[in-house]
Amino acid sequence: MKQKPTLTFRLESDFYDRLDIFTEKFLTEGLNTFRNEFRNIDSFYSAAINDLSSRDDHSFRRTPKAFYLVEAIYFKVFDEFNRDAFNKAKDTVIIMPQCLALLQDKCRRKRGKYGKICNHCTPNCQINKIDTMASSFGVETYFSKRGLEKQLGKIKRIKPSLSVIGVSCILTLASGMRTARELGVPARGVFLNFTGCDHWTDKPFATETSLSRLKAILEEKYGISYSPA
Ligand code: SF4
Fold first, then answer.
1. How does the average pLDDT of the chain come out, rounded?
2. The pTM is what?
């Protein structure tokens, strides 16, 4: 007798009706929960739509508010899902954006094995602080390169049991984690606390992230606590 195939999922006839109701509820509740964090997105979005200049990041800037919420949730689900594999991986690297460097275009970063690395020129720079903290766990930190896939792939070839912590903005963190997943690298992440690079402003300024969240991720993985000297 022919066996019936097992369907991993099968949509019921009212699936789209229920999806409509759920999505509406999710967006209303989510955007209300994060209304303070997201309060300037609509005006940024309108300005980006009306900006007819020849810049090449229109599609990134023209992202409606709902997608910020979806990306944040995507990150959260990913971060939780990867936690166990992340903690079990032998090596970890932290990949950080240029906008986190306090001195911005005067940053004295230098060439490292898998990307630019901090030169510790400014004590108050968050990248400097993150690198110092990471070193105490034996974790290397790198500035992100344009091609994350190539950068992470190169590290993974030398360190096959690799995990990564990404520091990035709400619109890019989950996509970086997807790239890492495709390479078989379990990723966790921490958001930038606010925007500051040239996608968002004509006069870029240094961004910030949550050092305590990064510290908690490292402490959980290595089972030791860290206190700055
Ligand atoms: S401390 Fe490091 S990341 Fe910060 S500005 Fe200096 S070299 Fe750049």
1. 96
2. 0.95
